[in-house]
TrEMBL record:
PANTHER family: QUINONE OXIDOREDUCTASE PIG3 (PTHR48106:SF18), QUINONE OXIDOREDUCTASE PIG3-RELATED (PTHR48106). The keyword NADP applies. SMART domains: PKS_ER. This is NADPH:quinone reductase. The lineage of its organism: Bacteria, Bacillati, Actinomycetota, Actinomycetes, Micromonosporales. Signal peptide: none annotated. Residues 14-324 form the Enoyl reductase (ER) domain. It comes from the Bacteria. Keywords: NADP, Oxidoreductase.
């Protein structure tokens, strides 16, 4: 067992240069906590917010990362066994304590989901948090039903692609937006029925496809586009606010009667590991392995390329999920 590990440390809020690879002591798990030998981790908007100084109550320096996949290394007092494949997500990772941007991470057992898969770690690393949010948004946030229409605002984000895949699998008709014309074909190639170029307002385009308005809408851009997304939704339809690609998540001087179209419902979703049951994770991993489901494009980096990966996240130059491998793929 090594005594030290490589980890990405965010020294303070600021530019990508503040992400430094350091040699740290391998953390020891207390009873009820699990030490994971991390094989890969996905990048999320949450970590960009952290680096930009938009997260409150965080001490620096800190190892970021709200998700990771790997194998159990130690789990005192736990039902988990060394060598078992697991995903870890949320529960304070990368905020209240050091997160997944490391060769080892220690997390509460409640944040860990066991699974078994022969998929490459580069694929597995992009699944947990994206799947959790997509699944929870469609079920808890929207209660989407087969045959309904769904508008995804922010369709070429990792979450946008994943939600489209799950919605199509459910039997919904999917509309999804992108601000970049050259990504319309990519949306169509990943199963979106109606790719829409977003010039700031898409309600009129959505209503040409669904004249009464869409049954459901997932808002991933944030509050700047939320009124237009609400306007695209039918009476008794539902909009779920689950993302903040714009980095704006509050509505100043919110007056519900003036803000919300009559009869349109507004919900929100933000889940934890418990909201992605192990059988659900396993089912979707098996579907991915069998080639009957794809959560969208991904881009893989090495640990020593973390600044490059964060720059791509920051500038929106890569469509889909960004995944970092901590070591070899095998």
């Amino acid at each position: 067992m090594p005594t030290t590990m490589r980890a990405v440390v965010l020294t303070a809020p600021g530019p990508v240069d503040n992400l430094q690879i350091r040699e740290l002591a391998v953390p020891e798990p207390a009873p009820g906590w699990v030490r994971i030998a991390v094989r890969a981790f996905g990048l999320n908007r949450s970590e960009l917010h952290l680096r930009r100084g938009l997260a409150e109550g965080v001490r620096f320096p800190i190892v970021p990362g709200i998700e990771a996949v790997g194998t159990v290394d130690a789990a005192p007092g736990s039902d988990l066994r060394p060598g078992e494949q697991v995903a870890a997500l949320m529960g304070g990772m990368g905020r209240a304590y050091d997160g997944g941007y490391a060769e080892y991470t220690v997390v509460p057992r409640s944040s860990v989901i066991p699974f078994h898969s022969d998929l490459p770690w580069a694929v597995l690393g992009g699944v947990p948090e994206t799947l959790q949010t997509a699944y929870g948004s469609l079920t808890t946030g929207l209660d989407l039903r087969p045959g309904q229409t769904l508008l995804i605002r922010g369709g070429t984000s990792a979450l946008g692609y994943a939600t489209a895949a799950l919605a199509k699998d459910l039997g919904a008709t999917v509309l999804a937006t992108t601000r970049q014309k050259d990504r319309l074909d990519t949306l169509a190639a990943h199963g979106v029925d109606h790719p829409i170029l977003d010039g700031g307002a898409v309600a009129a385009q959505a209503r040409r496809i669904a004249p009464d308005g869409v049954d459901a809408a997932l808002e991933l851009v944030g509050t700047p586009t939320l009124p237009d997304t609400l306007a695209a939704t039918r009476v008794h339809g539902t909009v779920c606010f689950a993302g903040m690609l714009s980095d704006q998540w509050t509505v100043p001087d919110f007056y519900p009667i003036g803000y919300l179209p009559t009869g349109v419902r507004l919900t929100a979703y933000g889940g934890e590991a418990i909201d992605l049951p192990a059988p659900v994770l396993q089912r979707y991993l098996d579907r991915i392995a069998g080639g009957t489901l794809s959560l969208g494009p991904s881009h893989t980096y090495r640990l020593d390329q973390i600044r490059e990966a964060h720059h791509a996240l920051d500038t929106n130059t890569a469509s889909g999920k960004l995944v970092v491998l901590t070591g070899s793929e095998s």
